[in-house]
């Protein structure tokens, strides 16, 4: 495959729809227009034309748009054909275009790749296209669009220019030590450096926000059987995602729910109750639970508040804490506050967060949601941002 090839691809999703779009980019796009349309449309105007087969018969009719390079998305000649969205019609039209020499099916992402190679997009903008398409929340979509419009690139370029400016002064001080002018004595240089450091910190914060929006946070609910893990999953998900019974060992496999908390994607994973199980199926489920725990961003250590008054995780279950990966953040969740009468809310115990709630009634769930959001540094009110 060569970048000199002319490429074609369907721009609309597979399946039936009111409109189906094919895009062609490359040197042969002009020939495709002449062969399929019978003429070259006026640049950047919508022409309603028949789309013709090899023998001149009409395959379809619709809108044709012509974007001569370099004034196009890819920087090459681009032809867009907007016809009816039936899969048979689109397939016939695609096969017709592929009969022309030098035209082939585009690889995934090749239109964006050509835009990058032709300096129409930088790398951050090219990646932002996929982020915008895959955005799972309104805030993620807005952040991806900011990156696509060049916000991230502009911030990076500004930092590079500022550092280059400071480097000039440092090199001048080294190269000309005998000069009467001390290039580094001026307090302005230190102020500029502090400004660059502050900008870098801000970019890191926004990049962290973007990472959360793109990838989400993986939170594993773990604990003994009947601690209320599945009830907590249902409360966070807002629906009956997991079966809840009084029978220990009801959950035997990993259950996953994808939710959003004020725009932050969250991957909640419910696991089998951890214990020494005699049942082979339950043992497999427990082993899978530990595999998920080892890959988690945070563990919600679910505790049945009716079985213990302890609040320090090391006192509640020392063997469990000892097996956890080092530096894995833990939030102790004391459940069944509706029965124990404990005061709802959040506190700190020996460096660990402690949340008291009732998964059954939903009391205290909002406190846990806010805690998860804050623990990952997610700022709902952050203006701008980028992915």
Automatic annotation (TrEMBL):
Keywords: Cytoplasm, GTP-binding, Hydrolase, Magnesium, Metal-binding, Nucleotide-binding, Potassium, tRNA processing
Keyword Transferase carried by entry: no
Location in the cell: Cytoplasm
Pfam families reported for this sequence: MMR_HSR1, MnmE_helical, TrmE_N
Alphabetical list of PROSITE patterns matching this protein: G_TRME (PS51709)
GO cellular component, one term: cytosol
BP terms from Gene Ontology: tRNA methylation; tRNA wobble uridine modification
Residue stretches making up the TrmE-type G domain: 216-377
Matches recorded under PANTHER family: TRNA MODIFICATION GTPASE GTPBP3, TRNA MODIFICATION GTPASE GTPBP3, MITOCHONDRIAL
Protein name per its UniProtKB record: tRNA uridine-5-carboxymethylaminomethyl(34) synthesis GTPase MnmE
């Amino acid at each position: 495959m060569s970048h000199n090839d002319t490429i074609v691809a369907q721009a609309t999703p597979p399946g039936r729809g009111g409109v189906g779009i094919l895009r062609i980019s490359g040197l042969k796009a002009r020939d495709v227009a002449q062969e399929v349309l019978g003429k070259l449309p006026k640049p950047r105007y919508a022409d309603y034309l028949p789309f013709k087969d090899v023998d001149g018969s009409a395959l379809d009719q619709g809108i044709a748009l012509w974007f001569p390079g370099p004034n196009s998305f890819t920087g090459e000649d681009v032809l867009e054909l907007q016809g009816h969205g039936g899969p048979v019609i689109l397939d016939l039209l695609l096969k017709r275009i592929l009969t022309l020499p030098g035209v082939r099916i585009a690889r995934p992402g090749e239109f964006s790749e050509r835009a990058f190679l032709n300096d129409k997009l930088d790398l951050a903008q090219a990646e932002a296209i996929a982020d915008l398409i895959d955005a799972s929340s309104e805030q993620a979509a807005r952040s991806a669009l900011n990156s696509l419009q060049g916000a991230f690139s502009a911030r990076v370029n500004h930092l590079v220019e500022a550092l280059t400016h400071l480097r000039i002064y440092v090199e001048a001080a080294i190269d000309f030590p005998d000069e009467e002018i001390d290039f580094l004595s001026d307090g302005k240089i230190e102020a500029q450096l502090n400004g660059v450091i502050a900008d870098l910190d801000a970019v890191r914060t926004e990049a962290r926000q973007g990472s959360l929006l793109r990838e989400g946070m993986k939170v594993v609910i773990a604990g003994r059987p009947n601690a209320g893990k599945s009830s907590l999953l249902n409360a966070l998900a807002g629906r009956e995602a997991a079966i809840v019974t009084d029978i220990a060992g009801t959950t035997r496999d990993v259950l996953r729910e994808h939710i959003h908390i004020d725009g932050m994607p969250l991957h909640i994973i419910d696991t089998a109750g951890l214990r020494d199980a005699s049942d082979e199926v339950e043992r497999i489920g427990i082993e899978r639970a530990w595999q998920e725990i080892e890959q988690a961003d945070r563990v919600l250590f679910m505790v049945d508040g009716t079985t213990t008054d302890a609040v320090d995780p090391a006192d509640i279950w020392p063997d469990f804490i000892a097996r956890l990966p080092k530096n894995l953040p833990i939030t102790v969740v004391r459940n069944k506050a509706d029965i124990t009468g404990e005061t709802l809310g959040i506190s700190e115990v020996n460096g660990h967060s402690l949340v008291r709630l009732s998964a059954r009634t939903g009391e205290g769930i909002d406190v846990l949601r806010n805690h998860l959001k804050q623990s990952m540094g997610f700022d709902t009110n952050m203006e701008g941002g980028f992915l």
